[in-house]
Amino acid sequence: MQSWLSYNNKLRPTILKSDISEWDFWKHHNISKYDFYKELSICWKSWKDIPPTENDVSSATKALSMLGTVDIVTAREESTHNDVKNWLKFYEITFKNYIGVSEGLEKARLDYDIFIDDSPLNAKSMIETGKSVILYSQPWNLKFNNPRAKRIDKLKNAISVIYKMKQTI
Prior knowledge:
about 170 residues; alpha/beta
């Protein structure tokens, strides 16, 4: 998101990450969904300029892979998949499979025990289909409040949450 914000702020009035209080925030800034996703794809072409959401994400994914299979499940334009894979490799993100879907809501149909996601729409859909969800806190999901979604601020915090979830699955 940070890369898109930098891109956007060169074209339009400034938007800060903290200003984004909902998933489809672009509607409130007179940006079409098509333009937002097109611009997001453009940003991925400069994948080396995209910072991770937190420091030491490599260690966190490595530790998570000790608990079970870690797959990257992402909804994005197909043309960006190689850029994303290069980014994952560059930041030494540990995972077994890379799964691309065209829409985020498709994730809930996949056969996983536990999802980690930052989309409140995906989290709601996953919960409705009986999946376990860990919500990675971001400004756009802070209004989402469901006791079945366990919230984390750092990826490494998912380790203890998953350990507890595995005891009940």
